[in-house]
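Researcher: Structure prediction, please.
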Amino acid sequence: MAIQKLLSLLFSQLVLFLLFLDLTNSQGLQVGVQVGIGLNTPQGLQLGFYRQTCPNAESTIHDMVQQFISSDRTLAAPLLRLHFHDCFVRGCDGSVLLNSTSTNQAEKDAVPNQTLRGFNVIDAIKSAVEKECPGVVSCADIVALAARDSVAMVGGPSWVVATGRRDGTVSRASEALAQIPSPFANINQLKQNFSAKGLSVKDLVVLSGAHTIGIGHCFVIINRLYNFTGKGDTDPSLDPAYAAQLKTICKPGDNTTVVAMDPGSSTLFDADYYNVVATRRGLFQSDAALLNDIQTRVYVTLQSSTNGITFAQDFAQSMVKLGNIGVLTGSQGEIRKQCAVVN
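Model: Predicted structure follows.
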């Protein structure tokens, strides 16, 4: 009997390993290739784009991010989220930073973006860079570099960021509402969201790992806890013990309380998010959805059972892809003088 159990366990592990190989190969993972600039880098982006025009730009951005993170580690997640939400609407063009006007509701006022933070950090960095090199460095590049640097400063991986993005002049709340993945999304909706941006299923499950840092708001999970199907019930995909714990924190009608996405290490960028999801303690329905697809479930299981054996490299690669979405270069767009308003 013991031998049969051992053989069964070994067979299960072999199947898991083979499935993971198939997943990574099908999504184009190139082991041993440096994470950074590759054949898919958009024309107009390059390493050290500001080397001649603003040689201290990247070091200034890095140093200022470090100042903010040193005083408040919780800012890493918002800075990463800013980049993600920016790139998912009109590409990585800084449009998420623009203020609404009397004739236009901008992205930052769309429901998915009303809990964004970090605008003050980007504005402070932009002001410092403008003093060094007026009208040279784009807000879009500042967002991309700040996201990379903040993740590295809280224990995460770093990655090469090609620069040369220009700032967009259009920002519409309706587009943000339609295109940013919802915390209520099921796995098919998530796949559609990511595919529309040229991102793979592997990118989906990898970038979801960003929830290893940061917080969620109680109002987002209230229905999941108290009225999932309209019958006063709790989402059955949520671990009952964890649901009971969340109910002691989040009460019906609570619009202000926040909960850690990765309890115990919400300011440390590690792979524990996958343990959270694997044990049915993902905070959002979109986290739980990763267990409802063979490809994403295999990745969750692999990372949770190996302490994130490939997560850091995978995350860096997916972030490079994210940062290349829909960029404006050359004579497109503009270089804003202030990130919140067009010139």
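Model: The longest strand covers residues 215-217.
Researcher: Thanks, that helps.
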